[in-house]
Amino acid sequence: AQSVAQPEDQVNVAEGNPLTVKCTYSVSGNPYLFWYVQYPNRGLQFLLKYITGDNLVKGSYGFEAEFNKSQTSFHLKKPSALVSDSALYFCAVRDMNSYYQLIWGAGTKLIIKP
Amino acid sequence: DAGVIQSPRHEVTEMGQEVTLRCKPISGHDYLFWYRQTMMRGLELLIYFNNNVPIDDSGMPEDRFSAKMPNASFSTLKIQPSEPRDSAVYFCASSRATGGENTEAFFGQGTRLTVV
Questions:
Q1: What are the angstrom distances between the C-alpha of B36 and each of A21, A61, A90, B65?
Q2: Which of A 9-48 lie inside 8 A of B, CB atoms?
Q3: If pLDDT is split at 50, 70 and 90, which confidence band does A100 have?
Q4: Sign of the C-alpha dihedral, residues A77, B4, A92, A49?
């Protein structure tokens, strides 16, 4: 069965420190992988995606993610956290064999402390 | 482009009333998705359209829910009659494709529905 796991409900990071938000997935075929961010009372905003090619993907707001096929992971990272990065982050995966169905993680609340 | 536009942003209604949520997708996007977000269940796909045609409505919780897309620039999600357990944030999203490069979905700001 296809699934996405975000093992941490909440991640706390001091401003200026590097941050990592974890995501692991399970699909039957090759995955399309996505990260979205949701600020309070807002819709989800697309951050970055992995389709194919380079395992390190760069996205909006200085975020990047690394696709690791052997570990079936797609962790979101940023070298230096900002207070404004505090938000809810969602990982999602689509099996290339499934035309539309995005499988969503439960979300990780990222809190950046000044 | 203005992005995906949803209206209203907030809706408070009494149990038993009809509720209609509206969505204008991004121009040129062939796929439109309706999602519901709650604390308990997270993000749930309700239905999606391709070129205005409903493809899969298996996520629609009950017959009280219906969705239409009369043209490429407009879709509605209707709940009739509404119940308190329908209270949630409803998102509309659109994408150019579901495979290949342009596969990411863009979300509207959502409609927060409260049924009392």
A1: 24, 26, 15, 12
A2: 32, 34, 36, 41-46
A3: low
A4: negative
